[in-house]
Amino acid sequence: MIAEVETKELKSAVKKFFGFNGFKGNQEDIIKSLLNGNDTFVIMPTGGGKSLCYQLPALLSEGTAIVVSPLIALMKNQVDAIRGFSNETGIAHFLNSSLNKGDILQVKKDVLSGKTKLLYIAPETLTKEDNLSFFKEIKISFFAVDEAHCISEWGHDFRPEYRRIRPMIDMVGGVPVMALTATATPKVQQDIQKNLGMLGADVFKSSFNRDNLYYDIRPKQNPIKEIIKYVKQNSGKSGIVYCLSRKKVEEIAEALQVNGVRAAPYHAGLDAKERAKTQDAFLMEDLHVIVATIAFGMGIDKPDVRFVIHHDIPKSLEGYYQETGRAGRDGGEGKCVTFYSYDDIMKLEKFMKDKPVAEQEIGKQMLQETASYAETSSCRRKFLLHYFGEEFDDVRCNGMCDNCRHPKKKFEAKDDLALALQAVVESKEKHKIKDIINILTGTLTATGKSYKHNALKTWGKGTEDDKDEKFWQAVMRQAIVNNFLNKDIESYGVLRMTDKGKAFLKKPESIKFTRDHDYVNGSKDQDDDVVIASGKGGGATDQTLYTMLKDLVKKEAKKVNLPPYVIFQETSLEEMATQYPVTLQELAKISGVGQGKAVKYGKQFVELIKKYVEENEIERPVDMVIKSVVNKSGLKVYIIQNIDRKISLPDMAKSKNLTLPKLLTEIETIVESGTKVNINYYADDIMDEERQDEILDYLKETQVDDIQAALKELGENEYSEEEVRVMRIKFLSDFGN
To answer: Over the stretch 223-264, which tens digit does the pLDDT of each residue have?
Structure first.
């Protein structure tokens, strides 16, 4: 160690090794603390420059610094970065399960020779007997425990093996220890210090405020489509999309790829080579977007990530803060968009049900903090910083969160909250949210009957001023989030009164709740293509254009002597009048059109729309349509394949556990979306040529697309609904597609 380190020496060293002219924040004091032989605890937000706090001391000290790090990807990234500043490849190494025997021998050789100043290891590596013996042979300058929150059960990424680090350090020998984390509440901070035996450490805590990050929570409605829309609006920018499940990661990555975005999935289910390749491609900007589980990003030093999107709300605010912290590390733009539904909180609570009670309590508390953050109407920055033990004046947010930029509407909820709590008490704290809402709205269910809920004083009292189920869901949710009520996981979500709730009922006082977003309804991702519009359309049908398109479809239908609906159905025309497709390629993406119809009938339509757009100076979105990924295992593909194989429709329906009418509906949907199918074989099976011709003649002549009207005209006793529907499918497919 260097006895007393001069500022001048350090500035010279940081310039020589890293090319920096000086230090950020309290980096210099942190480095001096470690070089002077003190245990040092660093709490610094992502992008604050934590890595330099141990990298520079390692380069200046005699021996090798051991850096305990949780992820192979993180180690590789850090080692590559250090090697980039030096002519000596052996200056930094990692020692983990990804290395073969030859690699391990080379690492140990470089360490023993004194070349290696930084050796990154996984906590599991530290505990192996042969590694411990090796560490006892070498000169260790200090231990650095990165991502130290992994030690704490109250941290967002708890790893049991982290709690075994201190005994291993003691076995190797007494050297200074540095712990580093980007997120630590006071409780987590204490837990880390206690477990690492560094209660007397020098503690350096930087401000958690990242003033360049914009925090935005959105209702989780069609999140995949919204994510694609957002990414395409930020075309060319680097971003990360986080999901809780591997399946969702794959799904979103594929959807982005289909829509022309250079994206790739990243999760623990992929092999190490694939993950490393993806990470490198992201750093080299061959990929713009990584879709990942939380396995990605810890310590990834990419300064220009411009957005971080959460498809699912993280399990804790520490996790949220660290993941969003990967945006805008260079001080530039950093957008943090999270899709939130209270249903997700409920799902995560259910997943905890089989865990030990102590773990459940910790997890539940973290989730409630996260829900409170998502649903707060106050400054998000102030809420986050308060959680990390830092005071903040929300005026300083400068509109850098959705609540400060677009304040939510609030209402006086004193009486509503009191009524909801009274219903919980009256029903003896035995029921879930849904049952309490049924009491308040006077909705009698089987549960309500058996418990005689209609005899309660609060029965039906919540229907004044047009208050409905949705209103009461918001009240109940915010009552839980604000700790007036508690949901008992062990009892499947039964509501219990808290002390705060009991005190409120005794003496109700003014409280404001919000009535803005619907956070109850969960994710809705349809299979159909979803179209995005901006400008004049803004998602609403342009009535003038719609009328013009209706006139055109009638005119074109007359030319080919067909009913207008065979060419384009009204729903397709409405979508055209909302989205303004001006090329055949764009028209093909309108639902109910498809490539065949676009080529067959589309030329006149796109010409009309193009002229209309130019004359009225309508702003069209650059990317009009979001393409959906074909569900390869879906019913649609099964039906098309089996029609090609000429399988009878009743057999097909039976194998998929459908009724025949339901199967016909599915085939109608396929045909109406512009896909051609050939069910002549089945039509021939169930009726002769004369009957087929009679139905076809009717369909050609009528202007009304209505099965019941057709049956009435043809004679309900003579023709079955099945026959008419089969011939309509044949007619639309032959003439329309």
So the answer is: 999 999 899 888 889 999 999 889 999 999 999 998 889 999
Query: Which pLDDT belongs to residue 1?
Result: 42
Q: Residue 594's domain spans which residues? A: 530-626
Pair 415, 298 in one domain: no
Is the per-residue pLDDT at 575 higher than 80? yes
Tokens in use for 511?
A: 């409280």
Contact 287, 263 (CB under 8 A): yes
Q: Which residue has the tokens 């790090």?
A: 69
Residue 546, pLDDT > 90, answer: no
CA distances from 456 to 10, 63, 449, 453, 498 (A): 74, 76, 11, 5, 21
Query: Which are the contacts of 538, defined by CB distance < 8 A and separation ≥ 6?
Result: none
Instruction: Tell me: do 151 and 56 sit in the same domain.
Output: yes
Assign residue 26 the CATH number of its domain.
Answer: 3.40.50.300
Q: How far apart are CA 453 and CA 437, in angstroms?
A: 11
Residue 571 is assigned to a structural domain of this protein:
yes
* Cα separations in angstroms, 313 against 91, 323, 375, 728: 40, 11, 12, 46
- The arithmetic mean of pLDDT across residues 635-656, rounded, is 87
On whether residue 318 sits in a domain, the answer given is yes
Task: Please indicate, yes or no, whether residues 44 and 142 belong to a single structural domain of this protein.
Answer: yes
Bigger pLDDT: 65 or 528? 65
Q: From CA 569, how far away is CA 3, in angstroms rounded? A: 83
Secondary structure (H, E, C), 683-695:
HHHHCCHHHHHHH
pTM of the model: 0.60
Strand, helix or coil for residue 486 = strand
Q: Are residues 36 and 185 in the same domain?
A: yes
Q: What is the mean pLDDT of the chain?
A: 85
In whole angstroms, what is the distance from residue 728 CA to residue 162 CA? 67
Residue 395 maps to a domain:
no
Query: Are 31 and 69 members of one domain?
Result: yes
User: What are the beta bridge partners of residue 95?
Assistant: 121
In the DSSP assignment, the letter for residue 575 is H
Domain-terminating residue out of 321, 340, 359: 340
Contact between 472 and 420 (Cβ < 8 Å):
yes
8 CB-near residues (< 8 Å, 6+ apart): none
The answer to whether residues 655 and 619 belong to one domain is no
Residue that is last in its domain, among 452, 484, 514: 514
Cα separation of 547 and 30, whole Å?
71
Residue 525: what pLDDT?
A: 54
Task: Determine the pLDDT at residue 526.
Answer: 42
